[in-house]
Amino acid sequence: MKDVLVGIQEGLIDGGVEVVTNFPGFKSHVLFSKLGGKITSVNEKIAYEIAWGASYAGKRSAVMFKNVGLNDAADPFLNSHLVGVNAGLVVIVFDDVEVEGSQSRQDSRHYFDFFEGLWLEPDSVEQAYILAYHSFEWSEKFKLPVVIRVTNQLINASGTFTRMPSTIRKVSVTKKDRRQFLIHPTNASHQRQELAKKNKRIRDFVENLYESKVTRKNGRGAISFGRCARELNDFNKEDGDILRIFTYPIPERRVKEFAKGKEILTVFEQGDNFGEEKIRAALEKQETTSNTGIIPNQSGKYIISEHYEKLFRALKAVEPDIVIGDLGEYTQDTLESIDACLCFGSSLSVGAGALIGGAKKVFSITGDAAYLHSGKNVIPEILERKIPLKVIVICNSGSQGTGGQHIPGDLFYQPEPVEKYSVEYRKTGLNEFVGVLAKMSKSKSLSVLYVSM
């Protein structure tokens, strides 16, 4: 028996993957490692842009990150639907809808409604292999990125599959076509027209991926999206018909055929009722009920960290007005030190905003991965605005929460006006910490303390 990550890995390999990129989060980095990935990108946006660039130059490319990471990559992701691709580009989005390792429950499928395209959601290890195998071929067929959605239930699946012959297709460097590949208002109309044609072809294409089966028409039916094993387990006991959907767009003709004679039609899916809304639109007047999957309470698995207690005790001693945090092991500590956290890499920007908003003494705490991901980008503006923000960077040699992946970038460089301090956590006593933080508190300029763990 093999897990689904092996299925996707070997499907992509047999399908001819040549370039892989990643920013770590919710198992995406595990797949990246299985595919031989070595260098983690600075953030998801850069990971996507590198993968698209490789596709443009003729290499079959795959980029992977979790659902929240797609938010960071949204600009190039959406634009790539308008300009298209050359060699196949596959996007594997890990949707942590059960909030096992993410800050909130988000359903990435809503991005489909912007420009559509082709999304795939397997319901088994075997199907994950098959869809990953064909994903580059289909991407090149429609000249669009293909998305594979992986949910919590799918990650926990196991099964078998039969490998198919490797398909390494030589895709030449694309001919320069400014109307296609140059995103610009002068090309907008042409690109939208071309996208509409591609989406029409995709809608016709997906209809042929589903077998037309005669249903029992016993008045009860279920439509499932992706893997819904827990939910369907109860349904199967009642012996109803099941239509398993694994594509977006949905196969509307097959759905209408299946729904005939069904008095009760239940839609099972992981995340929001996104799929049910598509079913309702296709069936118009027919009633459906929605079951959007079990959402286990995973909060008990999260550890309230004690690793940074000495630092947080020192911080409380200097009595800051506000402490802004980033997402990391330090976000929740035993002393409840952090007052607010918006998103990964945001603590410096939010801290600057708090000072602009009238707060007097603001500390922003971030980790090295969050700082390099996007946190440091606001520093030129902080200097321009002359904002006296106090920053603490916890340096633990990478993305500690996902296994310590090295994030490229110069962690310690600061422009000349920035006051820099550094301490080693284990060698620094509480009183020394208090002294450094007190000195920072009195500063009227941007100051940064690096804490090496």
From TrEMBL:
Keyword DNA damage (UniProt): no
Key words, A-Z: Metal-binding, Oxidoreductase
Alphabetical list of SUPFAM superfamilies matching this protein: Thiamin diphosphate-binding fold (THDP-binding) (SSF52518)
GO molecular function, one term: thiamine pyrophosphate binding
Source domain of life: Bacteria
Residues covered by the Thiamine pyrophosphate enzyme TPP-binding domain: 340-413
InterPro entries, A to Z: HACL1-like, Pyrv_Fd/Flavodoxin_OxRdtase_N, THDP-binding, TPP_enzyme_TPP-bd
Protein name stated in the entry: Thiamine pyrophosphate enzyme TPP-binding domain-containing protein
Species assigned in the record: candidate division WWE3 bacterium
